TrEMBL record:
<dbReference type="InterPro" id="IPR009100">
    <property type="entry name" value="AcylCoA_DH/oxidase_NM_dom_sf"/>
</dbReference>
<dbReference type="Pfam" id="PF02770">
    <property type="entry name" value="Acyl-CoA_dh_M"/>
</dbReference>
<dbReference type="InterPro" id="IPR046373">
    <property type="entry name" value="Acyl-CoA_Oxase/DH_mid-dom_sf"/>
</dbReference>
<dbReference type="InterPro" id="IPR006091">
    <property type="entry name" value="Acyl-CoA_Oxase/DH_mid-dom"/>
</dbReference>
<dbReference type="InterPro" id="IPR052161">
    <property type="entry name" value="Mycobact_Acyl-CoA_DH"/>
</dbReference>
<keyword id="KW-0285">Flavoprotein</keyword>
<dbReference type="InterPro" id="IPR037069">
    <property type="entry name" value="AcylCoA_DH/ox_N_sf"/>
</dbReference>
<dbReference type="GO" id="GO:0005886">
    <property type="term" value="C:plasma membrane"/>
</dbReference>
<feature type="domain" description="Acyl-CoA oxidase/dehydrogenase middle">
    <location>
        <begin position="129"/>
        <end position="225"/>
    </location>
</feature>
<dbReference type="GO" id="GO:0050660">
    <property type="term" value="F:flavin adenine dinucleotide binding"/>
</dbReference>
<dbReference type="InterPro" id="IPR013786">
    <property type="entry name" value="AcylCoA_DH/ox_N"/>
</dbReference>
<dbReference type="GO" id="GO:0003995">
    <property type="term" value="F:acyl-CoA dehydrogenase activity"/>
</dbReference>
<keyword id="KW-0274">FAD</keyword>
<comment type="similarity">
    <text>Belongs to the acyl-CoA dehydrogenase family.</text>
</comment>
<protein>
    <submittedName>
        <fullName>Acyl-CoA dehydrogenase</fullName>
    </submittedName>
</protein>
<dbReference type="InterPro" id="IPR006089">
    <property type="entry name" value="Acyl-CoA_DH_CS"/>
</dbReference>
<keyword id="KW-0560">Oxidoreductase</keyword>
Length: 384
């Protein structure tokens, strides 16, 4: 395989899988009537769709067969993820479980945790949220103040997490908390992770409603919440290493490039065949950037598939990808200005554009601000 072929991610096996997921999505949309959405991995929660997708074999692809998964690799999951996003499918219900918590359980979970949770993730029926960010600790997770104190049989958890997508609908939340006092000389030490039931006594979930009326973010408060020892994820005190490993999966996927792809594709398809040279140049710019970023993202997926560290390149994908997503909104708006406002598709395109503009400020924040990620890249290149 040439280097170019590797970046295309179109090996015969992957091509067959891509055809299969496309056929599933076309048939499922025809039967159930969902519409392609902007930012579908964050904003479109449909538990029934997730269950159907899993039953068809498209969730838990990297989970070993002994735990109910397909036992395939990161590139197989990449191809399926890419198609789900390109079609704007409603995938939010199972997204975080499949993307981050399954790999974390495989790397750090106990055998009991793997046997309890991985089959449910593979079935598309474990809905989970991420408990990392706080009001004074967004991209700087070392500033997290949520604490867990050891008690008889487990831990007492107190603190507040914010921007927790889907917490009001999820079953579990993975919480990063301090389990030992802050050492100013070693800010990343003393963290642990807990896989907390969201119906536990002492948890309050308050909605954060966006300007457009959408509700998928939440503030989650923990008031002396008891977490049994069985729900500690990994090792006490090793939370920072575990979290940074998870972030490689979060930052490098095609969702960092394709959140607006439904708008881009719809706008291009609506353009007249006799579009002028300026329009052709705008379309060419969009696709040139998208293809370049996709190839960078695929290179990270291949690195993860080989078991190597990809933190620096994952941060680069996230930085460049989310800036492209923001730029693409206005580039698509410029394309729409060239359309006949009376065209049948004009109203649908205007709706997609309005949603994309509302979501656009989020793109460069979630998963770490771009300024922080550039620091990650610089350190990875040896700059101090």
């Amino acid at each position: 395989m040439t280097q170019f072929d590797a970046l295309c991610a179109n090996d015969p096996e992957l091509s067959e899988l891509r055809t299969a997921i496309r056929e599933f999505l076309a048939a499922d949309r025809d039967e159930h009537g969902w519409e392609p959405a902007i930012d579908s991995w964050l904003a479109r929660w449909d538990a029934d769709f997730s269950a159907r997708l899993a039953e068809a074999g498209f969730v838990g692809l990297t989970i070993p067969t002994e735990y109910g998964g397909r036992g395939l690799g990161h590139l197989h999951r990449y191809v399926v993820t890419e198609e789900l996003l390109a079609h704007g499918a409603p995938v939010a219900a199972h997204w975080f479980s499949d993307r981050q918590f399954a790999p974390s359980l495989l790397s750090y979970g106990s055998d009991e945790q793997r046997r309890e949770f991985l089959p449910v993730i593979a079935a598309g029926k474990l809905h989970a949220a991420i408990g990392m960010s706080e009001h004074d600790a967004g991209s700087d997770l070392a500033a997290v103040k949520t604490r867990a104190s050891q008690v008889d049989g487990g831990w007492s958890l107190s603190g507040t997490k914010v921007w927790t997508s889907g917490a009001h609908l999820a079953h579990r939340i993975v919480v990063l908390a301090r389990t030992s006092p802050l050492d100013p000389e070693h800010r990343h030490a003393g963290f642990s992770q807990f896989f907390v039931k969201l119906d536990s006594p002492g948890i309050t979930i308050d909605p954060i409603v966006q300007m457009g009326g959408e509700h998928h973010f939440n503030e989650v408060t923990f008031d002396d919440v008891f977490v049994p020892d069985a729900d500690v994820l990994g090792s006490i005190g090793d939370g920072w290493r575990q979290v940074t490993s998870e972030l490689g999966f979060e930052r490098s996927g095609p969702e960092r490039i394709l959140s607006t792809v439904t708008l881009i594709v719809a706008a291009i398809r609506a353009l007249p065949d006799d579009a002028d040279d300026g329009t052709a140049a705008a379309v060419g710019e969009l696709f040139a950037r998208m293809i370049s970023l996709r190839q960078l993202s695929i290179s990270v997926a291949r690195t993860l598939a080989s078991g190597e560290d990809a933190a620096t390149r994952a941060a680069l994908v996230k930085d460049l990808g989310t800036r492209f997503e923001q730029d693409s909104v206005e580039l698509a708006a410029d394309l729409l200005d060239r359309l006949d406002r009376q065209a049948p598709e004009a109203a649908r395109l205007a709706e997609l554009l309005a949603t994309a503009r509302l979501h656009s400020p989020l793109f460069t924040l979630r998963g770490g601000t771009n300024e922080v990620l550039r620091g990650v890249v610089a350190r990875g290149m040896g700059v101090r």
